UniProtKB/TrEMBL annotation:
SUPFAM superfamilies according to UniProt: Family A G protein-coupled receptor-like
Protein's UniProt name: Olfactory receptor
Function: Putative odorant or sperm cell receptor.
InterPro entries, A to Z: GPCR_Rhodpsn, GPCR_Rhodpsn_7TM, Olfact_rcpt
UniProt domain G-protein coupled receptors family 1 profile: residue ranges: 1-228
Annotated TM spans: 24-50, 71-90, 136-158, 170-191, 211-230
Keyword annotations of the record: Cell membrane, G-protein coupled receptor, Membrane, Olfaction, Receptor, Sensory transduction, Transducer, Transmembrane, Transmembrane helix
Organism field: Myotis lucifugus
Highest taxon of the lineage: Eukaryota
Localization per record: Cell membrane
GO molecular function terms attached to this record: G protein-coupled receptor activity; olfactory receptor activity
Entry GO terms, CC: plasma membrane
Gene name of the encoded protein: OR13
Amino acid sequence: CMNPCITCSVPLVLDHFVTTRKTISFSACAVQMFLSFAMAGTECLLLGMMAFDRYVAICNPLRYPMVMSKAAYVPMAASSWAIGGAASVVHTTLTMRLPFCGDNIINHFTCEILAVLKLACADISTNVISMGVTNVIFLAAPVLFIFFSYVFITTTILRIPSAEGRKKAFSTCSAHLTVVVIFYGTLFFMYGKPKSKDPLGADKQDLSDKLISLFYGVVTPMLNPVIYSIKT
């Protein structure tokens, strides 16, 4: 449940490697764009929710069953999915309403929003502004929440007198922290600075965007089960 990307992003991307299909319909592109953005946005919020879970488990272990009850974590997960889906609807709608010029060739593995925006022959300032707002909601806010959660977690762990106790406490958070660094690191490179015009090194930028999206869309979801299953 905590790894929504693997069910949609992986097949969509791998389809471009294992088939010879070179075209995609307008509606299929919109669906692909919606799913990939919604899954990524949802995981961003879920990672923030998981940081709170780790905070309660380490800093208030006796209250954990009460604080993280079903009545608490179900609305938390549902709200993450709802916000991720709503944001994806907004961005997909804004993008697909734009006029597109030229050959309409998407220089990317999938119908990724930033790649599609490069084909638009109209002002995309509204898209850039909305992407900036989204960056705050899905990147900046969760990362700050995770950071402060781990500040309190680290402080609490360092107060544990025994080395064995500190090791067990750190191991409780290690898997989540690893996924946070990998996933958010690649997303910041991809969405941290949306631009309305191509940079001078367009070819290099396009290749970088492809590799980054492949990493957070395929590699990270495939690594998640391995990371979360590691026992330290």
